[in-house]
Amino acid sequence: MTLRVLAVAAAALALAGPAAACAHPKTSLSYLEGQIMCPTCHTTLDMSEAPAAQQIKAQISKRIAQCWSAKQIEDELIGNFGQGILAAPPHKGFDLLAWWLPIGGVLAGGALLAAGVWRWSRTRVSDTEPDLDPETDRQIDELLARMD
Amino acid sequence: MTRSLKLTGQVLALVAVAGLLGLLVWRLTHQTHAPKIGAPAPNFTLRRIDGSGKLDLASLRGKPVVINFWASWCVPCKGEAKMLEQAWRQYKSEGVVFVGVDYHDVTSDARTFLTHHGITYPTVQDGSGMIGDRYGLTGVPETYFVDRSGRLVGTHIVGTITNQAKQFRSGIRAALHQ
């Protein structure tokens, strides 16, 4: 009888084990699939069915079930595959350039465009309303007064 | 004012073009090409996954070396594992060293693979694939032969050695006798 109770308890624990491993996962496979690259096909995991990608997905699922956070999983993968496993460069050190250069480029382009438009509009204004010297201005005024 | 603005713009444009040209030249000069037969085998110092510490290829200078690139997710690699282990046991008395290079792989899966297939020769991990790139790897498995002076010899095997047993043996012989 005792043996039977122990066997049932062991079976229940074995079945409950994986489910109770992580009641509230800290991240999801669908999120990480977009953040992690497939090392052999150079696309994100969600775009790849390659064997290496399948293996990494399985590893991520295993860690999620163990309640690992996205950061912990990413760190483990970086330790295993290097920084290149991340789809986006980290927001620190030299890698910050990858984030700021495009923004800087867009801002510089916008500034150049604005400067160009401003200069063009000023040229147009001066084309339509040329500055007259005082003598010509006076002669026109006289002519107009005579016409009146 | 306008003139200096224009000059600054031109200088900035020139700097940007020069920077892009520099990047192009850097990329072209740093492109990896597969090493030719007779060329020195690209050296590596990688973490061992069959034990602790690192393995430096240069430390094996003076011994013929067979380098096998593999991965646990690679189906053909499973097929050749047994033959590689048998060849290692056969040739180690002649001084030949086999080195497995685990390519783009999850460490725990790689270790399971080693245990499952009874691999006993030293195995290192190339997780980032940088060493594979230096060898001009096109996939896994691939096998290279290095002679006692550290030069690549024989014809490197693309695909499983089980399908190219003759080429595999002649590669080992080339590594032993050159």
Q: What does it look like?
A:
The complex is a heterodimer of chains A (148) and B (178). Chain A has helices at residues 2-21, 29-33, 51-65, 70-81, 96-128, 134-147. Chain A is mainly alpha-helical and 148 residues long. Chain A is rod-shaped. The N and C termini of chain A lie far apart (127 Å). By secondary structure, chain B is of the alpha/beta class. Chain B folds into 2 domains: 1-31; 45-177, Glutaredoxin, CATH 3.40.30.10. Helices cover 42% and strands 20% of the residues of chain B. Chain B is built from 5 helices and 7 strands; from the N terminus they run αβββαβαβαββα. The interface between A and B is medium-sized, with 16 and 19 residues.
Summary?
The complex is a heterodimer of chains A (148) and B (178). Chain A has 148 residues and is mainly alpha-helical.
Please describe the structure with a list of short key phrases separated by commas or semicolons.
heterodimer, A: about 150 residues, mainly alpha, Helicase, Ruva Protein, domain 3, 2 domains, B: about 180 residues, alpha/beta, Glutaredoxin, five-stranded mixed sheet, 5 helices
